[in-house]
From TrEMBL:
Upper classification of the organism: Bacteria, Bacillati, Actinomycetota, Actinomycetes, Streptosporangiales
Any one GO BP annotation for this protein: carbohydrate metabolic process
InterPro entries: AB_hydrolase_fold (IPR029058), CBD2 (IPR001919), CBM2/CBM3_carb-bd_dom_sf (IPR008965), CBM2_carb-bd_dom_sf (IPR012291), Esterase_phb (IPR010126), Plant_Biomass_Hydrol_Est (IPR050955)
Name this protein carries in UniProt: PHB depolymerase family esterase
PROSITE patterns associated with the record: CBM2
Any coiled-coil regions, as ranges: none
Length: 407
């Protein structure tokens, strides 16, 4: 049974963000054929034209559970985007990814209601229509793939946590469960999967959304072969080879493969169906590019930071010791330091942070042990880089989107 199979796929690790902003329910948001409910999180500080993220829950879940059980609202506070948390209302609280109506653009069922929510937020909050994103877990992951296929002109990118390809769960008997797909036995060629996604909006010929995929090798609910089938589908949609253009290992038991700049896939060795853990949401926000946003700061805001960047250089290389100080009036929980390396400098190694990319506009993200910076406190990180002639320091730094003073 669908309810039993997809129950309890998320772990709560933190309370909702400490903020005056609160989750609110919205009614009368537009066409809603399946009676979905809509909850909305608008941070106290948003970008002047805020991006919009649709965050879709798992079976037996709800929008409020997705809000309290994931880090997306905390990241919205940090980067100034708006999050929509829909709730399914059918038995088992699973989203419709099986019916013919759901698997085509404006065909009816849940995707139509979800699109009404997105349009409502774009209009009501002067949202940036070029920065609309979708993510989901399990049933919500399957719906993420459906929304990317049905509305490729709406979504800039999506992130799929333990899902199946668009169209894989289709049934002809009215059932919401497809055992063959769940068990990973629906295997098709990349062309066949690509054709299924393209058939959801057959008249569309424009650019397609970028896709980030996550799957655990020990998933016993939506089994691991679905991960490879998703890669086949979205690489074909983008006209790419299924051979990765790069492979790396961001942390123990993780393998990340990239296919150009359009598809990114994380295989998590030994991870079960309930795979989402702290830090994954930040990687998704970074993949979307939402970590680069500048928020509108209200009068009296007392946030602040300073950065000390000390260089020790030699003929073709350098090391840089970096101190990040919290000079504001509130503690920092999780940070991203942004800066641009001068031309010719390339990071060869680093400590105290994850650095991406290795040259140009760089983002340094905290690691597990140094994400908290108390008021008046600081953290030290550093890097080693090769250079072709200049060992100068970056000109400016931002911390969580706020420009820092140079100490």
């Amino acid at each position: 049974m669908l309810v039993a199979a997809l129950v309890a796929v998320i772990t709560v690790w933190a309370a909702p963000p400490a903020s005056a902003a609160a989750l609110t329910e919205v009614t009368d948001f537009g066409t809603n054929p399946s009676g979905l409910r809509m909850h909305l999180y608008v941070p106290d500080r948003v970008q002047s034209r805020p991006p919009v993220l649709l965050a879709v829950h798992y079976c037996t879940g709800s929008g409020p559970a997705m809000y309290s059980g994931t880090e997306f609202a905390q990241l919205a506070d940090r980067y100034g985007f708006i999050v929509i948390y829909p709730s399914a209302t059918r038995s088992g609280n699973c989203f419709d990814v099986s019916s013919a109506q759901a698997l085509r653009r404006d065909g009816g069922s849940d995707p139509v209601g979800l699109m009404s929510m997105v349009r409502y937020v774009l209009q009501r909050y002067n949202g940036d229509a070029s920065q609309v994103f979708v993510t989901g877990i399990s049933s919500g992951a399957m719906m993420t793939n459906v929304m990317l296929a049905n509305y490729p002109d709406v979504f800039a990118a999506g992130a799929v946590f333990a899902g199946v390809p668009d169209g894989c769960f289709a049934t002809a008997d009215g059932s919401g469960w497809n055992s063959a797909c769940a068990n990973g036995t629906v295997l098709k060629t990349p062309q066949e999967w690509g054709d299924i996604a393209r058939s959801a909006d057959p008249g569309y010929s424009g650019p397609r959304p970028r896709v980030q995929l996550w799957h655990g090798t020990a998933d016993d609910t939506l089994r691991y072969p679905n991960f490879g089938e998703e890669i086949d589908q979205w690489t074909n949609v983008h006209g790419l080879s299924t051979t990765p253009t790069s492979t790396d290992y961001p942390q123990q038991n993780w393998t990340r493969t990239r296919y150009g700049d359009k598809v990114e896939a994380y295989s998590l060795q030994g991870a079960p169906h309930n795979l989402m853990a702290s830090g994954m949401a930040l990687r998704t926000i970074q993949f979307f590019g939402l970590d680069q946003g500048d928020t509108t700061t209200p009068p009296g805001d007392d946030s602040g930071c300073s950065v000390t960047y000390t260089v020790n250089a030699w003929n073709t290389g350098l090391t840089a010791s970096i101190t990040i100080a919290n000079t504001g009036a509130a503690p920092i929980s999780g940070w991203t330091l942004g800066f641009s390396l001068p031309a010719g400098q390339t990071i060869t190694s680093g400590w105290g942070a994850e650095y991406q990319p290795k040259s140009g506009a760089v983002t340094a993200t905290n690691v597990s042990y140094n994400g908290a910076i108390p008021v008046g406190g600081s953290v030290g990180i550093g890097l080693q880089a090769a250079h072709t002639g200049t060992a100068a320091a970056p000109a400016t730094f931002t911390l969580n989107g706020t420009t820092c003073a140079a100490a």
